[in-house]
Amino acid sequence: MTNDLLGRHRAVLPDWLALYYEEPLEITHGEGRHVWDAQGNRYLDFFGGILTTMTAHALPEVTKAVSEQAGRIVHSSTLYLNRPMVELAERIAALSGIPDARVFFTTSGTEANDTALLLATAYRRSNTVLAMRNSYHGRSFSAVGITGNSGWSPTSLSPLQTLYVHGGVRTRGPFASLGDDDFIAACVDDLVDLLGHTRAPAALIAEPVQGVGGFTAPPDGLYAAFREVLHERGILWIADEVQTGWGRTGEHFWGWQAHGHNGPPDIMTFAKGIGNGMSIGGVVARSEIMNCLDSNSISTFGGTQITMAAGLANLNYLLEHDLQGNARRVGGLLIERLRAVAAHVPAVREVRGRGLMIGIEITRPGTDEADPQTAAAVLEAAREGGLLIGKGGGHNTSSLRVAPPLSLNVAEAEEGAAILENALRSIP
User: Fold this and answer.
1) For site-directed labelling of 314, which of 32, 99, 183, 295 has its Cα 20 to 30 A away?
2) Are 268 and 93 in contact (CB under 8 A)?
3) DSSP string of 333-377?
4) Both ends of the chain: CA-CA distance in Å?
C-alpha cells in the first residue's frame, strides 16, 4: 500500500517536494508524543510535523475545541467580526511584549514573514532588507529572496535587495574563534560597516535560533547589540519566531527575549506550534507600523474560526500546564544526555540548542566538512529504532534536528536519547 501511494505521489506531485527516508513513511494517526504508520509501527515523535505539534498529538482540549467550532461555523473571512480571532489576538498581543501591539493572522509562517516584509518596506519606504547568513524564512518569492541558505533558495530573483549579516552561526565563519563578547563586537562592527555602504534598509529579519539552518544561534545579546545600531538609524527589527516561539527554548517564551536588553522587536512573526497542526501564522507589530498600509487588505483564510478555536485551546493548555518550564527541565536533561553520547562519537561535531530545540551536527571525523550521507544514515537508523527526528543545516543538510512536543516527559526523553545513541553509534 505504501509503495502504491508513493508511486501516486511521484506521478502527481512536484519532484522537488522532499520526502524523508529511503522508504517514505505514511503517518496515519498519533496520540501524545507518539505516531503510527500505515503498517501499524509506533514511533516516538521528536520532530512534531516540523515543530507544529507543539503540545501533543490528538490533544483532547484542542480536538474538542475544533469539533465544537466546526459544529457552529468553520469560516467566514476577515470581512466579518470574528470572536475567536479577536480573543486570540488579545492574548497574543498581551504576551508579545510589543507595546500597543496589533495582530494580523495568516495561514503560515511564510505568509507571516511576507506580511512583515510588506509592513517594514512600506513603513520605511525602502526595499533593502538585512538578513542573517544561514537563515530560512519560507518558500514564497519574497521569503526565498531573504533566505541565506542556498539549499532552500531556488532563485536569485527577488523583489527585495538583501544584504546578509554575520552572527547567526556561533561556531562557524570568520568570528568563530572569538569569545562571546568579542564575537558580538565583531558582528556589530561588521553591521556598522555594511550600513556605511548602502542606502538605509527597511529592517533586519532574524530567527533567534535558526530552524532549517540546523538550530544554530548566536550568543545571547547579539540582537540587542544590533538593535542599538538599528534604532539609531530608524531600521526595524523583525523577529521570526515561527520555530522559537511559545516557550520551546525553555528559558524564554519568545526567542527574542534572550536578546531583549534593548527592548522588544518592532515586528514579530509566529506560526507552527500555536495551531498544534492547524494552519495558523501571524504578525505582531506596533500599531503605527501595522497601520501604515494605505490600501485595503483582507485575509480569506487567516484567522478563520476553526483555527482560532484550536489556537486558543492550545495556548490555554500550554500556559496552564507550564510547558515552557517542562521544555526547560526535560530539554535540559535531554541535551546533556545527548552531549554525553556525542563525546564518544567522532562524527558529531556539536550538540547545541536549548529547551526542546536541539541540533546535532554531523561532520567527517576530525574535520569541519559536512557529511550529509552520514546524517541521513542516522535519520534512517533512528527510524528503525522507533524514533522520528528531522534534518537541517546550512552546510549540506548535515545537522539532525530534535524538537519533540513540549509535553515530553522524562521517560520519553530517556527512551529517545537511547534510540539516538544506538543510531549515532551505528555510524561506521
Assistant:
1) 99
2) no
3) HHHHHHHHHHTT-TTEEEEEEETTEEEEEEBSTTS--B-HHHHHH
4) 33
**Phi, psi dihedrals of residue 53, rounded to the nearest 5°:** -80, 85
Cβ neighbours around 174 below 10 Å, total: 10
Residue 341: CA count within 13 A, CB half-sphere: 21
Cell numbers that stand for 65 in this block = 475545541
How are strands ordered across the β-sheet holding 27-31?
A: 27-31, 34-37, 42-45, 387-388
Q: How far is it, in rounded angstroms, from Cα 12 to Cα 28?
A: 21
CA distance 395 to 369: 8
Residues 391-426 have pLDDT tens digits of: 999 877 899 999 999 999 999 999 999 999 999 999
Query: What sign has the CA pseudo-torsion 287, 251, 386, 212?
Result: positive
Report the C-alpha gap between 159 and 118 in whole angstroms: 11
Angle between the N-to-C axes of helices 372-384 and 410-425, in degrees from 0 to 180, rounded to the nearest 10: 130
* 289 closest CA partner among 424, 101, 135, 427: 101
Round to whole Å and give the CA distance between 280 and 287.
21
Q: Judging by beta carbons within 10 Å of its beta carbon (0-12, 13-18, 19+), is residue 319 exposed, middle or buried?
A: middle
Task: Copy the grid coordinates of residue 125.
Answer: 519606504
**DSSP, res 259:** G
